[in-house]
Design goal:
Blueprint: H1 16-28, E1 29-38, E2 42-49, E3 55-61, H2 72-81, E4 92-98, E5 101-107, E6 111-112, H3 113-120, H4 126-145, E7 148-149, E8 158-160, E9 166-168, E10 175-176, H5 196-199, H6 208-223, H7 233-244, H8 279-294, H9 305-308, H10 314-328
Antiparallel strand pairs: 1-2, 2-3, 3-5, 4-5, 6-8, 7-10, 8-9
Helix pairs in contact: 4-6, 6-8
């Protein structure tokens, strides 16, 4: 059954090449009508490959102006994922540039992290939190080592398969970077997972913004709700400062020059982790130490992902993966 907006026949007035591409698409995939997800840049449908009988996820990219060609968000996602090869990055299987919208075909993963937490929580078991955070960091490390900033990490953009394998998805806001870092827009990342330097209007930010988002996700898995749940950008800033303390110019050189920082902001002192949802007892010393590094208030919070993702930390994750496969079986 064809998805809404994906007719079984190509539009009447299309070029021979476009018609050929449409036939290649329609002969290979059967798309369901019901959507399984929708975001700012596209709608996702469940589909089946008629050649392999494999279930896949079909993302139809929104095309507001057809004459403008393929949207930049789709180009970025395609550019990143076509060459990506990592177990913690969702796999892009196929791309079709069709009249009416570009179609991206992904491996199918039935739940995102938000849904996973609802099923198993809302607070996840400390061992599961550690395992998932490690996988998230490994995926981020792969992106950064290939000069990619994701810029939109949040539970809805992270998938969990039946084996417990985490997969980072939705690279529509991703950017390739070079040194020195250029200026970027600050309209990235859902507010609750947005780093303080972006919230304060900084346009020159680095890979550390992904680490801040990872820290927010880490805390949310442990506590069951968003850690900095602000109603607006400034409210989110204040929620960060209430927990982590209001930084000073001495701690953060250049803070006063950020467009949205005001010297009249309230001066909060940093709270101990034991007073923040009792998170230190939920994460333990190692988990709390990791959270502190990710949620360092100063924008230069980067640390060596190579060390965190070293083989010395893998046995626990591999054991958990084996337990999941024994429980659910292989595909």
């Amino acid at each position: 059954m064809a998805a809404e907006g994906v007719p079984m026949e190509p539009p009447a007035e299309v070029s021979e090449g476009a018609n050929s591409e449409w036939l290649r698409f329609s002969n290979k995939y059967s798309v369901e009508e019901k959507t399984i997800g929708e975001g700012a840049y596209g709608t996702v449908y469940k589909a089946r490959c008629t050649v392999t009988n494999r279930i896949v996820a079909m993302k139809k990219i929104k095309a507001e102006h057809e004459e403008d060609g393929v949207p930049s968000t789709a180009i970025r996602e395609i550019a990143v994922l076509l060459t990506a090869d990592h177990p913690n990055i969702v796999k892009l299987l196929d791309v079709y540039c069709l009249v009416g919208g570009t179609r991206l075909v992904f491996e199918f993963v039935d739940v995102n992290l938000k849904e996973h937490m609802k099923r198993h929580g809302p607070c996840l078991d400390p061992t599961a939190v550690c395992d998932l955070e490690l996988q998230l960091l490994q995926g981020i490390h792969y992106c950064h080592s290939h000069r990619i900033i994701h810029r939109d990490l949040k539970p809805q953009n992270i998938l969990i398969d039946t084996h417990g394998t985490l997969k980072i998805a939705d690279f529509g806001m991703a950017r390739a970077f070079s040194l020195p870092m250029p200026k970027y827009t600050h309209e990235v990342v859902t507010t609750w997972y947005r780093a303080p330097e972006i919230l304060l209007g900084c346009q020159k930010y680095s890979i550390s913004i992904d680490m801040w988002s990872a820290g927010c996700i880490h805390a949310e898995m442990a506590t069951g709700s968003a850690f900095f749940r602000g109603d607006s950008e400034i409210d989110t800033v204040f929620k960060i400062f209430r927990k982590r303390g209001t930084p000073t110019e001495q701690e953060w050189p250049g803070l006063g020059e950020l467009p949205d920082f005001k010297p009249t902001f309230p001066k909060w002192t940093r709270l101990p982790w034991s007073e923040i949802r009792n998170i230190d007892s939920q994460l333990g010393p190692h988990g709390t130490s990791l959270l502190i590094r990710c949620l360092h208030i100063i924008h230069a919070r980067g640390f060596l992902l190579d060390r965190l993702c070293s083989t010395s930390t893998l046995p626990q994750h591999q054991q958990h993966q084996k337990q999941q496969k024994d429980k659910h079986g292989e595909f």
